[in-house]
C-alpha cells in the first residue's frame, strides 16, 4: 500500500534542557517521560497542512486526533497561533511558536496526482530551535489517506514518547443489536479509532470473541452456526471462513494464535469438563494441555510463544494460571481478593491484563507475569475482555451499562490508568481484539 518510505531530510538531534517542564526529559531530545505521575500534556502546534486544502485538512485532523487522543499532547488552537508558516520549505519562526508556548511543531504538505498522494512532514523541537529527527514522506493511494495520517502520527508519537507506534492498526469486534436476551451479533474490523468499518460476518448466527492472527490476515472466532460453539477461521481479504473444529459431542471456544501463528490454543468442553487444548494450525492435530476436573478457559500466549496464561477455577474460584507450551503443572499467579478472568498477555511480555470481579463491581487490571504489582485501571457495573494495543501501552475493553436496556461499548485506557475514553462508535459493540501494526 505504501510503495515507498523516503527520507527527504537528514537532520540531527541535539540536547534540549527544559528545566521549567517537569513532565519532560531534562536532557536530550524533546521527550515525554510517561509515568503514573504525569499530569501535564506536551503542547504541540499542528498548523494547517500545505497542499490540496480538502485532503490536507482531513489528514491534519486525523494526525491531531491521534496525538491528542493519547492524553499526552495538548494542541495549540489555531486562533492562538501567530506564526506565518509560509510554505513547507520555509524556515521555522521558532520565536513565534515559543510565544504561544508550543513545545513541538508539526508541518506537512499533501500533494496528489490521480489516485495517488504523497504526504511529507517534519517535526520540530521549538524550544531547542531545531528539527526532531528526519523529515519523512509517505506515498499512498488517495483512498488510504487515513493510513498515511496514522503513519505520520505514529512517527511523531514514537519520537516524542520513545514508545513503539500503534495508530496504524485495526481492531476486530462484535457488533450487538437487539434486546439482551436475544442479541444479534456480527464481526467487524475497523481502524483503531473506529473508522473504516468492514463487516466480516452476517447476522445469521451467533458469533463471539474474534481474535486477530499475528499477521492480521485472518481472524479466529467462535460460531454457533451448528447450534453449539465451534471455532472457525476467517480470511480477512476474501471475507470467507471455514471450520477448525466440528465436535458433535464437544464445544470449542476462546481460540487464540501463538505469536508465530503455528499454534492455536483454545478451550474444549467434553463430558462436562473444560480444558485447555492446543491445535497445530497447519495440520489440525490437537492435544490437551490441561486435564483438570475444573473449568479452564481464556488462554493467551506469551510473546515468545513458550507459555500460556489462562483462567481456571481449580482452586475453588476463578484465578489466573500459567502453563508451558508442553504442558506440566500450572503455576497460579493471582492471589488477590475477587475472581480473575480473561487474561491477555502484553505484546511487551512484561504484563498481563485481566478482568476482575470484586463485590458487585468489575474491573480491568494489569499485573506482572509473576502476579506482582497488580494495578486496577477501571471500575464499573461490568468491564471485561481486555486486549492490548500493539505497543503494550493501551488496553481496549468492553463496558456494559446496567439495566435491561444497557448496551456494551468499547473503551480504551492507558496502562497508567489515565485517559480512559469510549470509542467513537454509534452502535453497541463488544469483544475487541487489537491486531498488529499494518505493514
Quick overview:
Keywords: Cell cycle, Cell division, Periplasm, Signal. The protein has 439 residues and is mainly beta.
CATH superfamily of the largest domain: TolB, C-terminal domain
Number of helices: 3
What is the rounded distance between the termini?
Answer: 8 Å
Number of strands: 32
> Rounded to an integer, what's the Rg over CA atoms?
23 Å
Can you identify the CATH class of the largest domain? Mainly Beta
User: Which outline best applies?
Assistant: globular
Helical fraction: under 10%
Structural class: mainly beta
Q: How much of the sequence is in beta strands?
A: 35-45%
Quaternary: single chain
CATH architecture of the largest domain: 6 Propeller
| Low-pLDDT segments, ≥5 res | 1-26
Largest sheet: 8 strands, mixed
Main location: periplasm
Subunit structure: The Tol-Pal system is composed of five core proteins: the inner membrane proteins TolA, TolQ and TolR, the periplasmic protein TolB and the outer membrane protein Pal. They form a network linking the inner and outer membranes and the peptidoglycan layer.
Domain TolB N-terminal: 30-130
Pfam families: PD40, TolB_N
